[in-house]
Amino acid sequence: MLLRLFLLFTLIPLAELWLLLWFSSLTSPAVTFGLVVVTGILGATLARKQGAQAWKKIQTNLVQGQQPTGVVLDGVMILIAGAFLITPGIMTDMLGFALLIPRVRDLLKVHLGEWIRKRALMQVQSQTSFHSSHAGFQDFGGSHTTVKEEDIIDVEFVRKESSETD
């Protein structure tokens, strides 16, 4: 994990710097600087607008008694997009603008929802718990299994206190 973080925070900035220098050699330093500034301002503006829309959808879902799981993921991806867009660089800008496209976020939500389901299932299976809930995962998209009444097993455990005579 530490190695991944080290690579993330060293290799990506180095690649971004190399791309900016390469782009600057093709155009000019002024054009490269202008590109970084414009994408930062444009990206921050778009992320702020879409973030406000996501926040309103979250509030609407909560008022209507619906779980805003998918909308919360949209908000998180928009927040990440904004962070990528205000970070100087070509790769992060492309990734940030991609995350602002609703269709891209929808595709990512499906994959992220499946990943979360698998992780949650592994977590539940690794513990000695008999209760599992799919609550909150309805609107990720992808395949859903329908739980029928005959599939539900209701179990009650009673702990027997040990007596002093045992």
From TrEMBL:
Q: Which domain of life is it from?
A: Bacteria
List, alphabetically, the GO terms of the cellular component aspect. Answer: membrane
**Keyword vocabulary terms for this entry:** Membrane, Transmembrane, Transmembrane helix
Transmembrane segment boundaries: 6-23, 30-47, 76-101
Q: Name one Pfam family in it.
A: FxsA
The question of whether 4Fe-4S is a record keyword is answered with: no
Could you tell me which InterPro entries the record lists for this protein? FxsA
Query: What's the protein here called?
Result: Phage T7 F exclusion suppressor FxsA
Species annotation:
Gimesia panareensis
